[in-house]
Specification:
single chain; 154 residues; alpha+beta; Aminopeptidase; seven-stranded mixed β-sheet; 33% strand; globular
Amino acid sequence: MLTVDLRPEALDSRVAGRLIAALNAELLGRYPEEGATHFRLDPDEVGPGRGVFLVAYRVGEPVGCGAIRRIATDVAEIKRMYVVPAARGGGIGATIVAGLEAAARALTVARLVLETGERQPEAIALYRRAGFGVIPRFGEYIDSPLSVCMAKTL
């Protein structure tokens, strides 16, 4: 198994832009309904003291990403999780989640929440394996019938 290296990146970097564009295209393909996707994440939300955007590298190539943004004093939300299709199934997603959990702990966050979609069973399975459980929809996802929200206490 090849080693995965997680590195913080600026959300507006070229590498982040490529990964996020691929993620957005995949999500639009799965959720073509208007209002079914939630793409918003601002660079300042993942800045020092507020969150982080991590890129996973394997053999020097970016193969995935994920972010956390603080949404309350002790709660952060996982955003923009993605692994390139050719690299899926090798534990990269789990490595990114573990890195985001470590970053959340460093920010003294006690709980992680996230939103994924019902048409992403592989993502739901990843989060369940990482210890997340389904919770009621929250925040901007309350009125999103295709959203599945999950949480984990750290």
